[in-house]
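User: Last request for today: this protein with zinc ion, please.
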Amino acid sequence: MEYYELNMRFPEFKSRAVTLSMDDGWKFDRQMIEVLDRYEIKCTFNLNAGSIEEEKTADYIWHGGRIPYEEIAEAYKNHEIASHTYTHPQLAFLDMPGVAYQIIKDREVLEEKTGRIVEGLAYPFGLSESKGMIDCIEKCGIRYGRTTVSTRNFNIPFDYLRWHPTCHMFDSKFDELVEKFFSSDDIKRPEKTKAKLFFIWGHSYEYENKWDSLEQMCEKIGNRENVWYATNMEIIDYISAYRTLRRSVNGKIIYNPTNIDVFVAVGKENVLIKKGETVVLK
Ligand SMILES: [Zn+2]
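Assistant: Here's the final one, the structure of the complex with zinc ion:
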């Protein structure tokens, strides 16, 4: 009996995706977004509502300050807003009520101010785990948590709450990674090609006085034909839909119970499994 091996593709059968994640909600985000939008690159911006609040009465403002509440919905309209906790503590030092407060309070304020649902998280100072912490975060409705651990690979994540990015935007190996990401050595055996994700993180203030380097990065990774540009949550939604596909034991019958169209490759064939539909392979 033949077995039908399935390979995930991104929307429109693209085999590559790029996503960005920027922390803290600095005013420099605006300048960054102006560049990203020109290259159709999507980003997730991780905000600390409590830090925005604190700035109203602070004696000293870091990195030119943060985008105020009244402006965040408009400033980030083309991108995702995610949580970075309420006041940016090291979560591993808190007890569970403290962790829950940091997540729920941040979500509540950001959701109230933007009218959006906020279910993504970037860990302040990266991920340092205390016992039960990830469980607690998940119970607060968080669907993914981005760390600061560079994998320098393009793997699709399995553990969404310990989602390690490919690299920081100023990684010394950035150019090598770009070259590897776009290399076409997989073209010889397209049926074996795995979908690749390039996941870059950083802070917009790091570009202060060197906006040219953002432009250069975008030239390298933006406006490419075979690339899906998506926010962190769009990536999670999509790969979750792919993993929710139901299949017969030999893989021949595929049912998509989700509300997202899923694109796959079966051998050399591209197959679209539309939302709610069943496909029987030939
Ligand atoms: Zn931060």
